[in-house]
Amino acid sequence: MKEQFAQQFAKRRDEVMQMMGGGVAIIPTSRESVRSRDVMYPFRASSDFYYLTHFNEPEAVAVLVPGREHGEFILFCRERDPEKEIWDGRRAGLEGACEFYGADDAFPITDIDEIVPGLLENREKVFYSMGSNDEFDSRLMTWVNEVRSKSRKGISAPTEILDLGHILHEMRLVKRCEEKALIHKACKISARAHKQAMKVCKPGMKEYEIEAEFQYIFRKKGSEFPAYPPIVATGENACVLHYVENRAELKDGDMLLIDAGCEIDGYAADISRSFPVNGKFSAEQRALYEVVLNAQQVAIDTIKPGVTWDVPHNAAVHVITEGLVEYGLLQGDVDELVGSAAYQRFYMHKTGHWLGLDVHDVGDYKVNDNWRELECGMIMTVEPGLYITAGSEGVDERWWNIGIRIEDDVAVTKNGHEVLSIDAPKQIDDIEHLMKG
Ligand code: GLY
Ligand code: MN
Ligand code: MN
């Protein structure tokens, strides 16, 4: 089943343990899938847990104990239970945890309170991500206190609880080949869906009909979930950044902004495309689209190892501001307008974020208060946009309700970058050609 991947995950765990330099790491998965009056909603493991285990059942905790004689990777999980499995689905069980997921030891999750305190004895440090699960936080403290109570027997308890995220998120930030391949696959499927949306789009359809094309292709191609709720926003809705209602009718003459990507084996794609509902850019739509497209290309062109995180954003902001001045949406000197962030009226978000197991993936953007340098293996989005809300003061009506975002997923390579979402059309001629049918 999962044996083929076992080695990749074993390598990740080894690396974490080396960085821990002793101690014990405790990594719980997400809480049980949501159950509402007997309906079970799909479970998704927490990203940190999944990164180290590839295990996707609820009620599981991974414990890493470097140097433990009977094995360093312990998995607490549900036992096999034929009756429950008939209702709620198959379980790997303790044997499966070892055989398929590489656990050195597996114990029933129900025994965790008896076993973990013993694993903490005489260990100085516990690595754990405090603050995301109150109930588990207090359980950990109970275990530590239990060990403390044995001090008269000469047993020492951990004195430090360190944030596992510090180590793990640095690792997660630089993707391995197999991770990049999964993001690439998610991008290819998502790009295909964007292309299909362009093909079928016509005035009179509803936003949710376009969303359905994404849901269909994502599932058809084996994606478990959309990586985030798809945004299918037409006309004025395109100026609402997190619009997810997707119920309005597509109107002739309006723009359509779609931000949708799927998840493959936990890894996200995050792609936005914007195009006219009727397949033909108006003069105003074309003008602003070209500004955003140009800003995006200039930002992407800067990406290579050694460049700091802020460089693509600053490059995009400059081009956007020039465009806004050219078309009279801003007045004044471009450098001064950049300095005063005047563009934020129409471009109010950043140009990108890390991408991985989480859509807004982990990893610091600054190191020692300085913008971080890009490294081979990092994957990021580049997503400038322009949003001209109706009634914007001093803006001629012909620009109103144009919302544009162009978002691609870009991997930093040894000498430059690779656009993983390249299959989603974004040149005006390509879009118009595709939409002509
Ligand atoms: N889809 C969320 C984002 O673009 O950041
Ligand atoms: Mn994004
Ligand atoms: Mn997006």
Question: Care to describe what's here?
Answer:
α8 packs antiparallel against α9 (207-220). 38% of the residues lie in helices and 17% in strands. 42% of the residues are buried. It is of the alpha+beta class. The chain is elongated. It has two domains: 3-171, Creatinase/prolidase N-terminal domain (Creatine Amidinohydrolase, Chain A, domain 1, 3-Layer(aba) Sandwich), CATH 3.40.350.10; 174-436, Creatinase/methionine aminopeptidase superfamily (Creatine Amidinohydrolase), CATH 3.90.230. The chain has a six-stranded mixed sheet with strand order 6-5-4-1-7-8, with helices on both faces. The model has no long low-confidence stretch (mean pLDDT 96). The protein contains 13 helices and 21 strands. The chain has helices spanning 3-20, 47-53, 82-88, 93-101, 112-120, 134-148, 164-173, 177-200, 207-220, 283-301, 310-326, 334-339, 428-436, and strands at 24-28, 35-36, 39-40, 61-64, 73-77, 105-108, 125-127, 160-162, 225-226, 231-234, 255-259, 262-264, 267-268, 272-276, 366-367, 370-371, 379-382, 385-388, 402-405, 408-412, 417-419. It binds glycine (GLY) and manganese (II) ion (2 copies). Glycine binds next to loops.
